[in-house]
Give the backbone structure.
Amino acid sequence: MAGPFDVSTFGRMAAIADPTGAHISIWEPKMHRGSDQVGPIGSFCWSLSCGRGTGTRPRHFIRSCSGGA
């Protein structure tokens, strides 16, 4: 996993793992707005969770990282 690091002037990111071992990459935008755009060519189009665990632990972890979303 990788702690927070700058991606040029585009933003900051980190690679973390949830309590069940699923890998998650998180993004904080700077000059690159990321998935704020929907529809144009090259915009974000897919998200998938492939964790080994089920139940409340993975959901609680994701919600705590995303501010409850």
The mean pLDDT is 75. The first strand starts at residue 2 and ends at 7.
